[in-house]
Amino acid sequence: MGEPERSAGDPLQEAPAAQPEPPVLTTPSADGVRDFFVGSEGLRPGWSLFLYLGIGTVVFFLLSSLTRFIPARGAGTLLQTFFTELVLVIASLLPAGGMAAIERKPFGVYGLPWRGVFGKPFWAGLAWGILALSVLMLLMRGAGVFFFGDLALHGARAFKFAAFWGAYFLLVGFFEEFTFRGYTQFTLARGIGFWPAALMLSSVFGGVHLQNPGEAWVGALCAGLIGLFFCFTLRRTGSLWFAAGMHASWDWGESYLYSVPDSGGMVTSHLLNSSFHGSRWLTGGSVGPEGSVLVFVVIALMWVVFDRVYPATKTAELRYTRQVGTPAPF
User: Fold this and answer.
1) Which end of the chain has less neighbouring CB within 10 Å, N or C?
2) Which pTM was predicted?
């Protein structure tokens, strides 16, 4: 028997199969792409750091290639050393100038305001560096492990090399302070806050010292703690001028004035024929004074005295934290 016919209104009448909806193709909106790179405070901190480090690396490799034109013999060796440090300074400062234009900020917010160029904080830092190091060397002399010896240089040569190493370590101070506590500290603090950024960068600063020949973990720890102290001076003074001056004079005092190893390295043409005798824990061994346990006594004194001389009520600290702003996502 055949199927009965169904009328149009018959509920058993089969409905035509539904056609699938065509897929909707979506593309990222311009706002979405922009939000990936830019936040409420401008270019996101992660991208800022990426650009800064990338540009700095390119600048360094381009300029350092010029060292091949300096003869690597006699005085040329010292000139190569000086020029390499100058290139490092340029490679740290020049990209920050470009980032200041991109981020529409004055260059001074990164720690080196023009109004403080070689001003009172810088000279105070120079004095602090020599004084703190001298306290350390006198402690070591009192412990009977350090001896000054006699003069290795005399007359005009002593002044000539004092000036050369003074200029060189001034470059070292500016490079290391701006690289680890200038643009990077300011930008990282925008993302995670001042002290977390200070701890992270000071740890890196200490770790980098382990790459130096003759360095040891005690010296690297000392470098990290001194780096953290320099962050403290940045927050209290509002700039890196104090830290740059202290860093330069500390290194100059170690390498030239007291003629001892600095983070495992010795410079040529230093002032004294000084020497160490005794336990490595007190002398620092191949690291130098920064590897001695006595250095931690000096670092603790530096924190206490600086806290008294530069109290937290100074307006510089508030000004610096306002410039950094509220931490924003990377």
Assistant:
1) N
2) 0.85
Q: pLDDT, tens digit, for every residue of 141-194?
A: 999 999 999 999 999 999 999 999 999 999 999 999 999 999 999 999 999 999
* DSSP code for 5: P
| Long-range pairs for 49-58: beta carbons < 8 A, 24 or more residues apart | 49/184, 49/187, 49/188, 51/95, 51/99, 51/102, 52/95, 52/96, 52/99, 52/183, 52/184, 52/187, 53/95, 55/94, 55/95, 55/98, 55/99, 56/91, 56/92, 56/94, 56/95, 57/91
**C-alpha R_g of the chain:** 29
Return the residue matching tokens 């007359």. Answer: 155
Structure tokens at 171: 């470059």
Q: Which of 239, 288, 289, 296 is nearest to 124 (CA)?
A: 239
Cα dist from 136 to 17, 50, 266, 288, whole Å = 90, 39, 18, 11
Place of tokens 């230093």: 270
